[in-house]
Known about the structure:
22 helices, 4-stranded mixed sheet, two-stranded antiparallel sheet, about 525 residues, 2 domains, single chain, elongated, alpha/beta
Amino acid sequence: MTEREDSKNYLSTLGKDFPSGLVVFLVALPLCLGIALASGAPLFAGIITGIVGGVIVSWLSGSQLSVSGPAAGLTVIVLNGLETLQTYEAFLMAVVIAGVLQVGLGLLKAGVIGLYFPSSVIKGMLAAIGLILILKQIPHFLGADEDFFGDMQFFQPDGRTTFSELFHAFTAINMGALIIGVISLVILITWDSAALKKYKFFKFVPGALIVVLLSIVLNEVFKASFPELVVGSQHLVSLPVVGSISELGNELRFPNFSQLANPQLYIVAFTIAIVASLETLLSVEAIDKLDRHKRRTPTNRELLAQGVGNITAGMIGGLPMTAVIVRGSANVASGAESKMSAFIHGLLLLLSVVFLADYLNLIPLSALAAVLLVVGFKLTRPALYKTQMKLGMEQFVPFIVTILAILFTDLLIGICVGLAVGVFFILKANYKSPYFFHKEEHRDREIIRIKLSEHVSFLNKASIVLTLDHLPKNSHVIIDGENSAFIDYDVLEAIQEFKKTAHERNIQVELLNIGDVAIMDLH
């Protein structure tokens, strides 16, 4: 496809991409600030990364719907990195090196790693993100949580957990925030109804925009007429106010190149590169599953794009970035069609910093929480659980384990736990597949034929060894590899070991079309 055709396509979908970009911007803005706050970095650093992710990475990436920016999953790594390297400028140097490493991973075509994660685990990740969004946004919806808006961890900065925060929230409700939240939620649900979607206005104007504007108006009405309902500043968006482009430049921080001789720098950079790359690959895989057009993201190109993004963010004072599942899913849920929506969100972040900070700081967080509650429900709707259950236990168990592990730990640990369970079921599925077993009764002794399948890997070793160990005494065993295009060395070694010791059980072994291998004698 030519550049001219590409630009035509992006213009043709602008009617859907602009509203989606606006929604993602409204969701991303407090997330960028919250993640920077939680990371112990300057607040402006989160905004810088959101801008770079939207304005630059969106065009370098091959994904049409993913959105990049600072990720909650990296907050602990950023905190530890700042503690290790002691200055923010030294940490920025680590971000730049992490970006270079990601570019290297992309050139080495390491993006294929993302394809090895089972579908049940990816779906579990999406469902878990949906549940976390719901659980984390309820306290903001009630106006009872002063922790940062982008918090996604189970253990919270105030010493509470995700669940204890919920119980606390219902004892400390801010009535004004709750009223705004409920009205916002009703509008969003109604806006998405089939009855209203018949009309062009409801199709092209995002409900989130109406919700945000109305929430500001309601809070101003509270200030004028019902002071007891006013939503305080701790429950409003908090954006640094920059008066001009020159002031914006003064907020930028730059990496300290003198730190290149510090060995600790490379440990932090390597950690950022690996974790950010893995989270990115998992996020784009998940977003591809949500894409109504089922487009596939080229993963190696994605690593290159993220690498360039981290190099750029690190050079001007930003946090490390990944493709972020929360923003990406909000993008899909809002009806985005192309990468134009991610670019628009980045552009709006840039413009908001310079021109709109005073107005955006009037937005109650309960209105944004309502937007994320709707996104969360779409990700973890009950139909998904029913579908996974119908697919059988080998799909449902890794799915549910991934959800629980992410809920009680974090995204990457949860994914690893889910993957381990998924691998267990893969090994179990391979247990009886590597051979055909046939038994014949003869007058002098039982004849057992074991015909190996076309491809016998090390995953099949356990099954074959257990079968050989349980063969009856005094039998004649024929192991035939005629149909096998490949037999793993571990399996060949196990067969030779069996042949060597079979006489102890008076078992006669005959090998057909199976080569000899050298067996090390450890005695």
